Amino acid sequence: MSNIIATIITVCTFAFGFNATAVEKANPLKDVNTKKLAHTYVEAITSGHVEYNKHLFTTDFEYSNANNGQTNNKTEYLNFLKKNKGLQYDCETTYEILDQTNAIALAKASMKFKNFTRVDYITMIQAEDGWKVSKVVTTYQ
Asked: Distance of CA 116 to CAs 52, 55, 68, Å?
């Protein structure tokens, strides 16, 4: 009898152990404010940090380049970021929150390179699981 109970406990522990590891990890960006979210976005772009990208963007995220009319959805943009993993841009970076009202915020990130400046206007919304980037419009000066 004790062997049967021990076997049942072992099987249950083994089965639940696998189930627990299959659960997706919690969103590490859930409780961050808009300034930290903008910083995380800038780090993804300028330093190739990709560990939070899965949690950074809304499902309907859209990227637009105002200079050439190019647009990308979330999947395309994440692929771009993944290809640039670890790539460090040689630029001076600043960012600021331009406006924040209730569940919407707008930030501006400037990346000053030697011969040009890239400016990203970042729209963020507050979702159930925290702030997320919903749209980015890039211009070059």
From this structure: 28, 30, 16
Amino acid, single-letter form, for residue 133: V
Cα torsion angle, 118, 119, 125, 129, sign: positive
Residue 14 lies in a domain: no
**pLDDT at res. 26:** 79
Strand partners, 65: 138
Which tens digit of pLDDT belongs to each residue from 73-100? 999 999 999 998 889 999 999 999 999 9
- CB contact at 8 A, 129 and 24: no
Cα–Cα distance measured from residue 81 to residue 35, given in angstroms and rounded to the nearest whole number: 21
Q: Report how many domains make up the chain.
A: 1
Residues in the chain: 141
Q: 63 pairs with which residues across the strands?
A: 72, 136
H or E element at residue 56: helix 53-56
- pTM of the predicted model as reported, rounded to 2 decimal places: 0.78
CA neighbours within 13 Å on the CB side: how many for 31?
2
Residue 64 identity: S
> For residue 43, what are the domain limits?
27-140
Contact assessment for residue 45 and residue 77, using Cβ atoms and an 8 Å cutoff: no
